[in-house]
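Exercise 4. Each item below gives a protein and its sequence. For each, produce the structure-token representation.

Item: DUF7680 domain-containing protein (Laceyella tengchongensis).
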Amino acid sequence: MVNQITAQDWELERDFQHRILPELDHAPWVLRLTEYKDKPAPVLVIKKRIYTGDSLYGGEQAEGKSMLKDQGLLYGQPLRRCLPALRKILSRVNDVAGIPLELQRFFNKDRIQYRGNLPLDEESGAKLALIFKLQERVADLDRVELIAWRVERFSREEAVYWFTRATQYGEAASRWALAGMRIMLGGQPGDEEIQHMLQKLRK
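Answer:
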């Protein structure tokens, strides 16, 4: 059993060095798995690549000059409840050749041991960023999980559209958009239909 686990770990490390690590320099999104002193480990941080010359940040896009900007955190019980949906989203991330990177392998159901960065494409990054932002201020974990499953089912275009609506129209408009999406995707607190919908989406 030990040899089998060691072989799996070796294969994952080899895959990381040869296929996953090279994607990090140009990935439009990056998922960081880290630890904070005041939060239960691990803490997932979703980061969006912003070109320093982007018109949204003062000028035209300057190729080769970029930075990663934090878009949200996920940790603790909300992370546990969202993990199945996150694994499904991550399983669809491909390399430049269209071959699946199988990033879900870093998210063991029992314990997430990996610490570091993982490259995401536009679709998976927008979906994770939406989930991370929408779960904020939601105490009901059933609603948090429901939101995650429904975002997981978004198309690429839907994910990018809703992320844009929730982040790029000013502070007040973004706050209203997020509040509306929490109800649209997670229902009203105490609604009995939340459980029924969860049971269908978990299958």
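Check: The longest strand covers residues 43-51.
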